[in-house]
Amino acid sequence: MFDSVRLEHKLGKEEFKEIEAQLRNELLDAQREMQERGTHSIMILINGADGAGKGEVLNRLYEWLDPRYLETIGIDIRDKTNNDWPKEWYYWRGVPAKGRVAAVLGSWYHLMLRERALGHLNREGFLGSVAVAREHETMLGHEGVRVLKLWLHLNPDEAERRYRKARGKSGFGHPLVQEWADVPAAHNKKRLHEAAKEVAQLVSPDAVPWVVVPAADARYRDVAVGRALLALMRATFAAAEPKAPAEATPGAGVLSPVATRPLPRPSIVGAIDLTKTVDPKDYKHRLREDQRRIFELTSSEAFRKRGLVCVFEGNDAAGKGGCIRRLRQALDPRDFRVHAVAAPSDEELARPYLWRFWRNIPRRGRTAVFDRSWYGRVLVERVEGFASVADWTRAYGEINAFERQLTRNGYIVLKFWLAISPEEQLRRFEERADTPYKQFKITDEDWRNREKWDLYEEAVTDMVDRTSTPLAPWTLVPAVDKRYARVTVLNTVADRLELALS
């Protein structure tokens, strides 16, 4: 791959004009079809040495495509203000809606290549970073986001020569995209080239392949990029076409009733001791003590480099709102936000399901509380059939990866499931229906969900089994006694903060 690009790749001016006219028409037709279909979006990762023409390629894309459906995501890793959020937050924030194309400068490969070139990342760490990137790209692919990974190749010496020439020329017509200024020495630039070669050659059957583009000749480079984009668009359309069903063989795949009968399975939430209570005389003292601890810990110097994410899930009417209000009382209102999660909007449906949660991750030193969360994919979307079996099955791994990225970036993730019995839920429903100022809390959907209690219990068991990890464990909270639930939640938050900040 990197051997062939060393050969001369040139395109004459007249030949370029002839190819360009047809390529532009085909790109516009494909872009229009993608926008009309509204099922996929594309992220183009434009990578390469400074001097390889990254900015010129971007400008060419804006010339050849309809700019109304093209956007740029530019991340400057050197900008210290970009450390307020996890680095993944910046990429998730810019994920394009379906039907659109986004060009990315400073992609998620930038940091790992930089660290590898500077010798700060050994091969084991480098391979781990590549694996995380692939995991992210696979998830995007499942959610309808196609990734085109470009490496604009120039010989390191030639790239350095062009870089110096561009920097020294006054009135430079196309500002140079300078991404590797902190990899200054010539030998480090060569190590960057070798790291890029290494990452492009690390292929696997499910990986998004790299497209290595010879960049010495601008005309050849631009046509190669345009053709790579066109090929991806057409492959996306072809993959979306319905396939004819295979010829069925009589009796094939038919299992007997004995083989298909489900085995009895214990319920995790069914095993929670719902009889637990707290002495009303101790309740206020315990609550205030833990609120004091939480306030002091989240106001500390140590917390400024961390972040807190609290997730509240549970049976309808289990008391999530009451627990959240007691947590609010322990936090500086300038430094936290509660996100009440409802059905996704059209804007959110046009992007991967984790997009709307990533964009609400707090900056470091602050807290986000999610009243319902990303676990809707494996709960309500699973039970109600809003997500296919394939979608909610793969979501467990995607959610674990999401939370792993948060914890790796210094965030403390706490997850609470508040449990009550069907009988207690019915009592609370009836109380809400009979109390005017509580009637907004009860809906027809709440009553319908009661009929699927067993299905939700099975979904919760799978959720806890598959997503309770050492870094982000579930806390199962008996919530028939509301006081007990509140002190359990606040005590857990205070203890986890204390442990993380010690």
UniProtKB/TrEMBL annotation:
Keywords: ATP synthesis. The keyword Transferase does not apply. It catalyses: [phosphate](n) + ATP = [phosphate](n+1) + ADP. Residues 12-234, 279-498 form the Polyphosphate kinase-2-related domain. It comes from the Bacteria. Pfam families: PPK2. InterPro entries: P-loop_NTPase (IPR027417), PolyP_AMP_Tfrase (IPR022489), PPK2-related (IPR022488). Signal peptide: none annotated. PANTHER family: POLYPHOSPHATE:AMP PHOSPHOTRANSFERASE, POLYPHOSPHATE:AMP PHOSPHOTRANSFERASE-RELATED. This is Polyphosphate:AMP phosphotransferase. It comes from Pseudochelatococcus lubricantis.
